[in-house]
Automatic annotation (TrEMBL):
This is Alpha/beta hydrolase. The keyword Oxidoreductase does not apply. Keywords: Hydrolase. Pfam families: Abhydrolase_6.
């Protein structure tokens, strides 16, 4: 399906991305944030495209390039952190809302991996535009020691590029969970990873996630894959991570069997994306109900 490029001015810099169309009137605006080592094309891999599914089901989906990826300008030196990335994307989504928000109930963030960490940062900021909920996957709060050690042993003076065989081993599940050509199909969206992102996701992020998550006041959908090679995966880790969102009105947490870290490229990607869009629809449907309850409470008092 044809996509349209998006360019947003943010404090003299550009945040770019792609959209599959305006969607149905009244549907929430879905904004997707990719992880490390991929650009916005992560959500538009042939046969696994969230943008295509959004267009087919009436949801306007915009996949953004995070700062320093794709067509988005990098953050200035010393500011390439999750917090500053969230600040830039908060402003960019505000611009998106100005242009695409008319007649819509609000925005739902769908995010993967490092993008999920940044989505939590954005939600914790409580943005001025109407955030309805966040659907995050491919992120946890404890990485295996060999992953932490590997990232910390990387050369500090250059970005990291994972070779295809390492990308296949770390980011995808067993052969039965993916099509044989998926790594090649996703290659067009692959980029190098700033080492700072890899160090922050195994350093500051695990230390700060509980405090950040406790500041999130919108619904949360959380998914961690059975074969995720970057996180410690079991039911207790899923429950612990979900439990950080103490202020969210509700949390839907799930350990997803039959997939690896890049859930969006596995054979069950359509099921994942349909669940995410259903979550977006539920978040939007609850807005009038919450508003009505507020009005009724005002009448009682």
């Amino acid at each position: 399906m044809t996509t349209t490029r998006v360019d947003l001015p943010v404090d003299g810099r550009r945040i770019a991305g792609a959209t599959s169309g305006a969607g149905t009137t009244g549907a929430p605006l879905v904004v997707a944030l990719h992880g490390g080592g991929y650009n916005s094309g992560y959500f538009d891999v042939p046969g696994h495209s969230l943008l295509d599914l959004g267009a087919a089901t009436g949801f306007p989906v915009v996949s953004l390039d995070r700062p320093g990826y794709g067509g988005s300008d990098p953050l200035p030196g010393g500011r390439a952190t999750f917090g500053h990335g969230a600040e830039a994307l908060d402003a960019a989504i505000g611009e998106l809302w100005t242009h695409y928000g008319e007649g819509r109930p609000g925005v739902v963030l769908v995010a993967h991996s490092i993008g999920s960490a940044i989505a939590v940062h954005i939600a914790a900021r409580r943005p001025r535009w109407p955030l309805l909920g966040i659907s995050i996957h491919g992120v946890g709060d404890r990485s295996p020691e060999h992953i932490v050690g590997a990232w910390r042993a990387m050369p500090t003076d250059e970005p990291v590029e994972l070779p295809p065989e390492q990308r296949r081993a770390l980011l995808y599940g067993p052969a039965g969970t993916v099509d044989a050509d998926v790594v090649e199909l996703a290659k067009a969206s692959v980029e190098t990873v700033p080492l700072g992102e890899m160090l922050e996701i195994v350093g500051d992020w695990p230390r700060n996630v509980a405090k950040l998550a406790a500041a999130v006041v919108v619904p949360v959908q959380y998914t961690l894959a059975e074969y995720d090679g970057l996180w410690i995966v079991d039911e207790s880790r899923v429950a612990t991570f979900a439990g950080h969102f103490t202020s969210a009105p509700w949390v839907d947490a799930r350990l997803q069997a039959g997939a690896g870290h890049n859930l969006d490229h596995h054979r069950l990607s359509r099921a994942l994306h349909l669940r995410q869009l259903a979550f977006a629809s539920e978040c939007a449907a609850r807005v009038p109900a919450a508003r009505d309850q507020t009005v009724d409470s005002a009448k009682i008092t």
